[in-house]
Each structure stands twice: as structure tokens, then as C-alpha cells.
Amino acid sequence: METYLIEVVGDLMILRADGGLNTGTAGQLSDKMSALVTGGVRKIIVDCSKLEIVSSLGLSSLLMLHTRMKKVGGEVKLCGIKGSIMQVIRISKLDRVFQTYPDIEQARLAFRP
Predict the structure, then answer these.
(1) How many domains, in total, are found in the chain?
(2) pLDDT tens, 104-113?
(3) Is residue 112 a part of any domain in this protein?
(4) What's the N-to-C CA distance of the chain in angstroms?
(5) C-alpha dihedral over 11, 100, 35, 71, to 10 degrees?
(6) Distance (Å, rounded) from C-alpha 17 to C-alpha 89?
(7) I need a surface site. Which of 10, 11, 50, 77 has the fewest CB within 10 A?
(8) Helices (H), 1-113
(9) In sequence order, what are the residues at sequence separation of 6 or more whose Cβ sits closer than 8 angstroms to the Cβ of residue 48?
(10) Element housing 52 (H / E)
(11) Residue 60 CA: distances (Å) to CA of 10, 51, 71, 106
């Protein structure tokens, strides 16, 4: 998986996940997120529109990101989740943890007071 920083505005960051979130890439996401949280990011949107596969370790890394952000008063939203990835999110009941949106703009609007 490659992760691309799309935009940072104040304490909001938009990140695109591309490819797969699995054993080989979950650590990469965790490391990037740790640095960003330490740097003051409190609102993260993960664009999953290019995500093709996700493993249990990948789901775990997203959950750890959610937990870490919650501890510092932040929040993570997911957007652009397609087909089988959404099924995995629902089966694992992570749709109860993460707010999901069809696209980046709707996720961005959800952060507005």
C-alpha cells in the first residue's frame, strides 16, 4: 500500500490509501499516523477509494489510529469505501466505530461545527 498525503489544512489531514492494507503495509500507516498525531493533526480523513484489499492486521491498524486520535481529542473518518472492503468493515462491525462517507467532500463537511 502506498499512502499519499493529499491535503493538510490546520489540524485536518486528508490521506489516500492506495492498494492494500495488510501485514506488509499496516506498520507504515501506523508510523505515519504517529508522527502526524504528534505534530498536532486532530482530524483525519482516510480516502479509501483506491484501496483494493484489507487484512485483519490492516483493520487493526485503523482501529489503533482511531484509539490514538480519540485519546488526544481527535477523530478519524473514512470515505470512498467500495464493495468488498465495505463488507469487511461491516462484518467486523467497524462501521460502528468509524463514520463513513461516500467522498472526501462529505467527510470534510462532517468535521464542520
Answers:
(1) 1
(2) 999 999 998 8
(3) no
(4) 33
(5) 80
(6) 15
(7) 10
(8) 26-38, 56-71, 83-91, 104-110
(9) 17, 78, 79, 80, 81, 82, 85
(10) strand 43-54
(11) 27, 16, 17, 25
CATH number at residue 72: 3.30.750.24
Is 44 within the bounds of a domain?
yes
pLDDT at residue 60, as a whole number: 85
Q: What is the pTM of this model?
A: 0.86
3-state SS track over 86-103: HHHHHHCCHHHCCEEECC
The model's pLDDT over 16-60, given as tens digits with 9 standing for 90+, comes to 877 777 666 666 667 777 777 778 889 999 999 988 888 888 888
| Distance from C-alpha of 91 to C-alpha of 75, rounded to nearest angstrom | 22
Locate 72 and state its grid cell: 488526544
